[in-house]
Structure formats: structure tokens, C-alpha cells
Specification:
mainly alpha; 8 helices; 162 residues; globular; 0% strand
Length: 162
């Protein structure tokens, strides 16, 4: 069915953009998109119509969740470079936003990126994440509040556990 494959192919730039925003790593994002495309093309017969974009984002989101679980079990080694010059202007703002996004829990970051970056509706995000629309709205409100507080230089509030 060439129509299905053409539709999937037109979604590749959006999938790459979303994957890069989720992973903050170009190689990991490209791997994630490739795995998404492989799964989608293998499951072509399972796609019964509807919103192809939401279906592909669901596959990508689930693969990313599995990837993060796998990475959480491994120790992380990072290089430290202190000789880099301090960025200024828009480069610094972009780094601040990336840092603020990194402070968000996965579900909040995913919801925010799908709405703000990809322009999906709350209903589509709810379908992708498998939660009610109210949960999506709550995740977005908490994500936006957290981003605002990080960008304003406030310390994140500690949660009270009962």
C-alpha cells in the first residue's frame, strides 16, 4: 500500500524533531525514529485508519519510555569539559530552556512537547499517552509552571509526602 508508506514518510521530519526534543541526543533520536518507522511499517496491516500522526507518536513515545527504563538500569558516564566559553544571547536562552525541560518528568515533558512543539490537540496527546484529557491538562499546567520557575531562577518546591 504505497499510500500508507508515503504518509509515514512525510511524518519523518516531525518524528525526528519530537525525538530530538525528548532525548537531547541526535544519535539516540535518530535510532528512536528508525525503530518507530520499522515498527510502523511492520505493523502496517494493524493500522485500521484514523490519525496516522497520533499512531506514530504513540509508537515513538512507548519506545522512548522503554529506552529510558533500560538506560535507568545502567550507570551513566559523562564527559566533563570546563573549557567551553559561556554562551550568550539566544544560545544561552536555548540552553536555559533545554535545562528547564530536562527538569520535567517524562510524561510532563512529552505532553508539553507534543502540544507546544508538534501542535497536537489535547485529545491527541491524551490518546498518545493513554490518559484522560484532564490528566494531559494537569501535566501541561505543572510543566509550564515548572518551566517558568526554572527560567525565573526559583528553586523547585519540594513535594510533601504523607
Amino acid at each position: 500500500m504505497p499510500d500508507f508508506r508515503d504518509s509515514v514518510e512525510t511524518m519523518i521530519p516531525a518524528l525526528r524533531r519530537y525525538a530530538r526534543a525528548l532525548t537531547h541526543d541526535r544519535e539516540a533520536a535518530d535510532d528512536l525514529v528508525q525503530d518507530t518507522l520499522v515498527r510502523a511499517l511492520r505493523a502496517e496491516k494493524l493500522f485500521l485508519g484514523g490519525d496516522l500522526r497520533a499512531w506514530l507518536y504513540t509508537i515513538l513515545t512507548n519506545l522512548n519510555r522503554n529506552r529510558r527504563r533500560s538506560l535507568a538500569r545502567r550507570p551513566v558516564l559523562a564527559e566533563y569539559h570546563d573549557d567551553a566559553p559561556e554562551p550568550s544571547g539566544t544560545e544561552a536562552e536555548g540552553r536555559d530552556i533545554a535545562r528547564a525541560l530536562a527538569t520535567l518528568p517524562d510524561d510532563q515533558r512529552s505532553a508539553l512537547l507534543l502540544v507546544a512543539l508538534e501542535g497536537l490537540s489535547y485529545r491527541d496527546v491524551a490518546e498518545i499517552q493513554g490518559v484522560p484529557i484532564g490528566t494531559v491538562m494537569s501535566r501541561l499546567a505543572r510543566a509550564r509552571a515548572q518551566i517558568r520557575s526554572v527560567l525565573d531562577g526559583e528553586r523547585p518546591a519540594l513535594r510533601r509526602v504523607k
